Amino acid sequence: GQTFNFDRSASPPASPPLAVVTTEGSNPTDGNPDDALSAEESVREALARAEQILAESQELALIGSWEWDIATGRLTWTAQTFRNFGEDPQTFVPSFENYTNRLHPEDREMMQQVVQGSLLSRKPFDYYHRLIRADGSVRTQHARGRAIYDHDGKPIRMVGTGQDVTERIALAAERTTPAAPEQASRRAGFPGRAAR
Q1: What gap in Å lies between CA 14 and CA 164, rounded to an integer?
Q2: How far is residue 159 from each of residues 64, 78, 118, 124, measured CA to CA in Å?
Q3: What's this model's pTM, rounded to 2 decimal places?
Q4: Where would a tag sit more exposed on the chain, N or C end, judged by fewer CB atoms within 10 A?
């Protein structure tokens, strides 16, 4: 069988990595089907935990991820991408058209040029754009991604991330005003004046 190692970096250093052995072609469980089921359950638990950690990390960092199947047009978003766009995953269908419609009108052409340039140059993209949520609020996204190509060099899909950087940009702007220390103090939840 094959062995797959899953690094458990959150574990104490003395703990060995989780090793999962597939049972294709041989039976590493000495014929005990309960051991094979237990190994499969361990793999499922490890994958579920990894997905939970990823989702929590994305929520904390305001970074959503996505995948676009170029041939079918199917766009897949993580839960955080839906939150960044202010959309409900039960009612909003992600598509390139719906994504483009959410972009600020002044940023749409730039996005198309960046994506087209990335596809032609075969280099990753990295840019900022504004989006307009259904409630009318304007948010700023830091978009990064790249295309995946088949063996003939044809782009078949794109993968990427979008981080909501609206608050970071607002904080940077506050730092440039004379009242910046006091505003930052209030924003952080500290009453009164900031130390000068």
Answers
A1: 38
A2: 11, 12, 12, 10
A3: 0.66
A4: C
